[in-house]
Amino acid sequence: MELTSPVSTINGLGPARVKILNEKDIFTCSDILYYFPRKHLDRTAINSINKLVKGESVTVIASVETFGEKPIRRGKIFQVIVSDGTGLLTLSWFNGGKYIKKMIKIGQRLVIFGKVEWFNGFVITHPEIEVIDDGEVNVHSGGIIPIYPLTKEMASVGLEQRRLRGIVQFIFDSQISISDFFSKSILQKYKLIPLDRALRLIHFSDNNNDLKSAIKRLKFDEHFFLQLLVALKKYNIQKVGTKALLDIGPYFKIISESLSFELTKAQKKVIQEVHDDLKMSRPMNRLIQGDVGCGKTIVAILVSSLTVGNNRQVAVMAPTEILARQHYASFKNEFDKANIPCCLLVGKMKKTERATILKGLKEGKISVVIGTHALIQEDVEFNSLGLVIIDEQHRFGVNQRLKLQEKGDNPHLMSMTATPIPRTLSITYHGDMDLSIIDELPKNRVPVTTKVVDQIKIEKVYDFIKTKIALGRQAIIVYPLVKESEKSDLAAAIDAFESLSAIQFSKIKLGLVHGKMNPEEKEKVVSQFKKNRINILISTTVVEVGLDVPNATIMLVEHAERFGLTQLHQLRGRVGRGSEKSYCILVKRNHSNMSRTRLAIMERTNDGFLIADEDLKLRGPGEVFGQRQSGFFQHKIADIVKDGKIIREARELAFELVKLDPNLRKPLNKDIKEVFVKKYSHYLKNLKLI
Fold first, then answer.
1. Is the Cβ–Cβ distance between 388 and 414 less than 8 Å?
2. Tens digits of per-residue pLDDT, 566-575?
3. Helix 265-278 crosses helix 296-308 at what angle (to 10 degrees)?
4. Euclidean distance between CA atoms 650 and 223, whole angstroms
5. Which letter does DSSP use for residue 43 in this model?
6. What is the Cα–Cα distance from 121 to 100, expressed in whole angstroms?
7. 3-state helix, strand, coil in the chain (%, to 5)
8. Cα–Cα distance between 360 and 315 in angstroms, integer?
9. Which of 241, 297, 557, 574 is the least crowded, having the fewest Cβ atoms under 10 Å away?
10. Residue 114 near residue 128 (C-beta atoms within 8 A)
11. What's the Rg (C-alpha) of the chain?
12. Distance (Å, whole) CA 438 – CA 476
């Protein structure tokens, strides 16, 4: 049997089972071996019920004695009583536990994972459970049992835990040949076990040390191939030629010397790093990362003035019209001092105005354009685009950024984000970019005071807001909106606006903005707020970026537990932009331990980088970072939160290989290239990497 042999050649896999496996992208023996267990049950670490301790996370094997629903004040609770012969344990699921009911039978044996509580006996609430067959825990002589991810479709055709283990065992018993793509020297340098041994041990280990060695090797492989892609992308960017921007030009000096404030050391450092890139004959690909309010905009303005000083154009793309207009106001304020022509290009403009702008860009009479997605439309042409600046770059897809770059002759690229990114995420998702960090806030910034309050105190919060408005200040109240399509969430913001306008703030002018409003409506409301004609702005998260009102000193976030910490930090950054003391009030309506833990972090610190690290640990990369950018792998076993050391080692190897052999043509790298192209060809289609 070969790794490439179809699963249909495996004993016991008929058409129905093959069909289900194929639907899970399992077509070959190799796919089976790479269908890793989602966890491993250590038989030596199984807990007896009579020895459970409150507060500990445990693993228990027990049989179902009885089960049923119990009415409670707010619905139903589904309970299962289990026994292992030493005592009884109650398993509880709120809201009826519908999916559990279908799994449970009297006498059925369960593997139970969860945290022990005490309520007139030992209880585990919302445990993780696995149904096992009689004798299944003795499936092999070792002490570690693999637990595979199963679906109801798999179970319906008999593809349960025991069957899957048998399939894997059958493949190994067939003396299948598994060659390694890493040389012995690489294995020795990074203390990795051979691939064939790793694949055997991930499924069948006798002890935890062997299992750890297998996991390390397979994690390393996943991180390595991702870093190899990153290294190749970076190499391909660097080998492309572009015009070096050697001159400083007259504009940089005019603008920098006219500033009413002194640049921080961090800003000066980043400007120098960018300037060094611009002087190179390869296109810059740099990410400017900084905390909220660190002064990225003035850095972008000064870098743009350097580019214009070299007779090249600049395009600045922002994710929202509100933010684009704000940037345009900031850029124009500084550029007017140096007579640099700049313009704003957004979706809805008068035809004559748009035509004038397009003509000016094509003829080179407009040096800098700030806009939204409107910049990537086909009829937008540049005379000599030299620099592309992407603000809040995580809001854009890879293709959108490429479309704008393609409007120039290999222009320099500078991306910016106000979302502090933990290092492991940065080298994983942005490893092909050079990184600059603005880690210093301007001297005049007053730290925002953050307070978490329960919903029962909301009236006191409203009274506090009234006192500040009486002193001439303004407030922003944000309601969560997970998706703009979620009508209930949008309705919550609209209902709140109507209720607050009529009752709590009846004598105060309120405004409402949300994602369903057209740009003109939004801009009108925001403009009135900026002019202090509106005292309180009710909003969904459209204010997360792009609203800069120094007079706004209170940010109130409803249902704060529904937001990620980095998002809350972004919202908090909308206040505290003036000299007045500012406040961020987080109203929590969920009283779980997780909510309390997360929101307490916001009270403790204003450091966005620390918050990002904590958010990553608590929620994982997918939630923190939003939708993954196209071109990155879906990991089967790797964990970018926990694998910091492995990621660094895998990155070291990948970048070293590309440095010495950019096209992976050396005989030593032949096997690596073969696996890379074969397994990850769908990531390479448009990149022409190899």
1. yes
2. 888 888 888 8
3. 30
4. 6
5. G
6. 21
7. 45, 20, 35
8. 13
9. 241
10. yes
11. 29
12. 27
Q: Residue 209: what residue type? A: N
DSSP 8-class letter at 157: T
Residues of the chain with CATH 3.40.50.300: 207-445+628-690, 449-605
Q: Beta strand 39-42 with 144-147: parallel, antiparallel or unpaired?
A: antiparallel
Taking CA atoms, 592 is separated from 560, 598, 599, 620, in Å, by 13, 10, 11, 19
Q: CB-based burial of residue 226 (10 Å sphere; 0-12 exposed, 13-18 middle, 19+ buried)?
A: buried
Q: Is the pTM of this model over 0.85?
A: no
Q: What tokens appear for 689 in the block?
A: 């990497």
Residue 275 has pLDDT above 60, yes or no: yes
Cβ(201)–Cβ(140) under 8 Å? no
DSSP class of residue 137?
Answer: G
Q: Please give the pLDDT value at position 650.
A: 95
**Cα–Cα distance for residue pair 288/435, rounded to 1 Å:** 6
**The pLDDT value given to residue 133:** 63
Lookup: tokens for 412: 């320099």
Separation between Cα atoms, residue 215 and residue 83, nearest integer Å: 33
Q: At residue 300, does pLDDT exceed 90?
A: yes
Q: Which residues does 618 contact at the CB level (< 8 Å), separation at least 6? A: 565, 594, 597, 598
Please give the Cα distance from 373 to 353 (Å, whole number). Answer: 17
Q: Note the pLDDT tens digit of each residue in 493-513.
A: 788 888 888 889 998 999 998
Q: Is residue 628 over pLDDT 60? A: no
At the topology level, CATH places domain 207-445+628-690 in Rossmann fold (3.40.50)
CATH code assigned to 449-605: 3.40.50.300
How is residue 253 written in tokens? 């000096």
Contact 205, 216 (CB under 8 A): no
Alpha-carbon span 292 to 607, nearest angstrom: 9
Ranges in the chain annotated CATH 2.40.50.140: 39-147
Phi and psi at residue 476, in whole multiples of 5°? Answer: -125, 130
Q: Quick check: 331 and 391 in contact, CB under 8 A?
A: no
The answer on pLDDT for 320 being more than 80 is yes
DSSP state of 87: -
Contact 271, 298 (CB under 8 A): no
CA distance 651 to 645: 10
- Tokens 């006192």, located at residue: 467
Q: Mention the CATH class of domain 39-147.
A: mainly beta
Structure tokens at 416: 């910016």
Alpha helices (H) along 503-607: 519-530, 565-572, 593-604
| Gap between the Cα atoms of 681 and 56, Å rounded | 45
What is the identity of the amino acid at 507?
K
